[in-house]
Amino acid sequence: MAQSLNLFISTSSPISKPSNSFLTGTFRWPVKVKTSGIRKPGQFPQLFITKASSASSDPETASAEATPQVLVSSNGIVSTPPGQDTSAIDVDAVTEAELKENGFRSTRRTKLICTIGPATCGSEQLEALAIGGMNVARINMCHGTREWHKRVIERVRRLNEEKGFAVAIMMDTEGSEIHMGDLGGASSVKAEDGEVWTFSVRAFDSSLPDYTINVNYEGFAEDVKVGDELLVDGGMVRFEVIEKIGPDVKCRCTDPGLLLPRANLTFWRHGSLVRERNAMLPTISSKDWLDIDFGIAEGVDFIAISFVKSAEVITHLKSYIKARARDSDIAVIAKIESVDSLRNLEEIILASDGAMVARGDLGAQIPLEQVPSEQQKIVQLCRQLNKPVIVASQLLESMIEYPTPTRAEVADISEAVRQRSDALMLSGESAMGQYPEKALTVLRSVSLRIEKWWREAKHHEAMELPDIASSFSDSISEEICNSAAKMANNLEVDALFVYTKDGHMASLLSRCRPDCPIFAFTTTTSVRRRLNLQWGLIPFRLSFSDDMESTLNKTFALLKARGMIKSGDLVIAVSDMLQSIQVMNVP
Ligand SMILES: Nc1ncnc2c1ncn2[C@@H]1O[C@H](COP(=O)(O)OP(=O)(O)O)[C@@H](O)[C@H]1O
Ligand SMILES: C=C(OP(=O)(O)O)C(=O)O
């Protein structure tokens, strides 16, 4: 008889215990729980443990003994008497089309995001990144035209369709930040120590005069004062303001470095950030709204909002998205990169679908030495509140120019992985660097190594995960996922399976950061892509059949075909999809 332990939570509807149930454990049948009226009886999430069939991929040699016992009814009880079911895992249960659609194989837990720019926008380059582990492609609306971004989105979508990837698209808005203009077509310009440059709000008709930088903020010349310090790209290059002449501001370079097109500008006075009118600018500019319309029309998976100051802007954007596209499940990511966003951190994260620690701009707004502790705080808070979190910027800055990372960069990546952030993001390294694929390889191999070390050393965190459920049925999901993840670690099972409609239960499992991989099965392509941002989730899209057993067989078959599980593996599965499971009334 197959190794099988089934844990069910049923409604209090009057049902009797069937004679041949598999119920084991410390609870009594029927388990009485009060229904909140949110879900109908029989629609509760569910947890069970099963053992992968010892059947080889050859159904001829399949053993009925090892058939997974997955037996459910709408009232939450097992059926199919032991020994009667002889169906082994059938590799034919999964179609060619489904195999092709689900080509994704990595069990790396930390997800990787690549900003797409001139160095990576071609189909072949995008495919190389997808093969190299890119889970999400980020397009930054601060650069390039909408037509350019549209072509990138089309290429990524084609790649997903033709090669079975689930690369999600994240559109990042420009926001109302002060930034430099284009550099007259140059991809970068070096500013040397002591050189005098002019920062001007003037619109130049033809090409920019030498040593001149255009600034996008009308009030710039009025706001800065002689003696102010001007930081480009969060301090990568520094200038001192030496003279103001009408719309022109003359500055001397004090810390040399590379000026990149449209780099962010901040100015400091007597060691403090000057926010003044910049702080009054709207979070979402009129250009951003047009970009957001573009993102909605293109069906991007995530919209990242720059310089979020409060939760209201996130709530406002989410209702706008719903009004524009009723069925849209675009997730909104808050970029934490300003003093205001730190001040209102918890309410912003609660209102958002995820957050980004945008260390580039954050490091220009708070002292650099505070960035690591803020990063840790944001990562932990996001996990507690069950929101995916991205650590971004300068992870491999030196690889924009050089083929190998610095030791300090490797240590920085390791720390973000050790903190269990959901995702790491490449910016200039992949957008315009000389070694985008190599940079991605470094992210991948460092992530894998630290994750492995963490598991081997049995570093289970004792992090307190607060209850976050807002309804009774959500509480059930949360308890099941917490228990399943704990059980998975204690029993050292090989995988967690989650069958999920909207991804919620998958994210609850991910939040626990269990040791084993989490295979997440959903029926929707967009949910699959969205889950691809979250720690430890390996998302697949499949159509489910009416009975859970054949769905389970199908998922085993898919994973076997992909070489991701093997016969005899022990699996814990949870599901929030009982609605679609066949009703089998218990006599
Ligand atoms: N779509 C694009 N077109 C041209 N250059 C880009 C694009 N996206 C990114 N880049 C380049 O990569 C650099 C780093 O990207 P990113 O961090 O997203 O931008 P920024 O820090 O300027 O907001 C940018 O400064 C820019 O030089
Ligand atoms: C990711 C960031 O934002 P952006 O690239 O838009 O400046 C950052 O500032 O770290």
Top CATH class of the largest domain: Alpha Beta
What share of the residues lie within helices?
25-40%
The gross shape turns out to be elongated
Strand residue content = 15-25%
CATH architecture descriptor of the largest domain: Alpha-Beta Barrel
CATH homologous superfamily label of the largest domain: Phosphoenolpyruvate-binding domains
The fold-level CATH name of the largest domain is TIM Barrel
Helix and strand composition category: alpha/beta
Count the strands? Answer: 23
Largest sheet: 8 strands, parallel, barrel
Unreliably modeled segments? 1-44, 53-89, 579-587
Radius of gyration, in angstroms, nearest whole number: 26 Å
Domains (count): 3
pLDDT averaged residue by residue: 82
Bound molecules: adenosine-5'-diphosphate, phosphoenolpyruvate
EC number: 2.7.1.40
Domain Pyruvate kinase barrel: 108-439
GO cellular component, one term: chloroplast stroma
Pathway: Carbohydrate degradation; glycolysis; pyruvate from D-glyceraldehyde 3-phosphate: step 5/5
